[in-house]
Amino acid sequence: MKKMTCFAGVLLGAGLLAVNVHAQNSSTPYKVLYTTQLMGNGGIDYVYADNDGRRVYVPRGGTTFVFDLDSHKYVGAISNVGGHGVAIDTATHHGVCSGSPPALFDTQTMMKIKDIPVQSRPDGILLEPLTDRVYILSHSSPSITGIDPKDGTVTGTVDVGGNLEQAQSDGQGKLYVDIEDQKKIGVVDVKTLKVLTRYDLGADAGEPGGLGLDAKNHILFAMCASPNVCVVVNALDGKVLATLPIGNGTDGGGFNAHTMEAWSSQRDGTLTIIKENSPTSFVVEQTVQTKSGCKTSALDTKNDRIVLICTERAAAAAPAPATNPPAGGQRRGGGGGPGNLDVLWVGR
Questions:
Q1: Sign of the C-alpha dihedral computed for residues 70, 73, 79 and 80 taken in this order
Q2: Is the pLDDT of residue 335 over 80?
């Protein structure tokens, strides 16, 4: 297997390292195809793949770093915009970062527009396509806050109860969200911002941190920790369809409708791939070795690749300038000190 290593540019006195590994054809198993490393400071939480704009956004400390989704190269940084995660609205070229407070920024100029005052403690985030609203998830009341990405105004709130983690939209008016501390999935009507129901994941479930959704077949994949299982649920009635083993320390997951595969990214350096053979048949297809700490993920829908992030201390890393983490810190974020930010592309 041929590898190529090169250095390019300097960021804030820190080096950028890109490692490329040639992909194999579609008949081969998943593996790490590319890794981009960027020196810096601060903790991380979520990674966001902007499939329309072909960019990857990673908040770290008080800055959001941007990478090219296709070339894997570092693009630049959005200063004074940091937090847990990012959501991008293609129509307005605006993004929202779920910091404390959240921030609105311009994706073309890569400049901050303004802070957005909210009442909750921002954590997870997503863009809901039917309402064209960004929803920020929280572990405190109000647990969901809607934001108009055009101007950053707050459009409404709803309390689902409990500690909210990842969420998925079916594009038809329902938002499904992990309620971590209750081992449930909340179902919200995004048109009325009302809680419709809560699905209990059952006695065999752990705390859900990642969530995938097969919207066509109405199947939810709740990725749980302690115990480490994926609980497969009928999204229409909450019936548990299957419980499958995954790796240790999940904090992200999703579903690829093109390949009919769900995935869970884990802190122990594994990525679990689950094949949906039919709406009633599911199997663990592969456990991919990634890197320790790569617990959150996003999907490159064009190339059927999963993007992961983690941090690691470099043995001889030069100190990077300190960045100011958002108020309240970053819950469960990795690698608060100086060291590499690793962005991994996993595919076939």
A1: positive
A2: no
For CA atoms 109, 110, 111, 113, give the dihedral sign. Answer: positive
Question: For the segment 276-313, what is each residue's pLDDT rounded down to a tens digit?
Answer: 999 999 999 999 999 999 999 999 999 999 999 999 98
Residue with tokens 């020196």: 39
Q: Which residues contact 316 (CB under 8 A, 6 or more apart)?
A: none
**Region of 269 on the Ramachandran plot (φ > 0 left; ψ -120 to 50 alpha; else beta):** left
Is there a contact between 250 and 205 (Cβ–Cβ < 8 Å)? no
As a whole number of angstroms, the distance between CA 256 and CA 241 comes to 19
Contact 270, 249 (CB under 8 A): no
Structural domains of the chain in order of their starting residue, each with its CATH number? 3-200+303-347 (2.130.10.10)
Count how many residues are written for the chain.
Answer: 348
- DSSP assignment of 211-269 equals EEEETTTTEEEEEEETTTEEEEEETTT--EEEEEE--SSEEEEEEETTTTEEEEEETTS
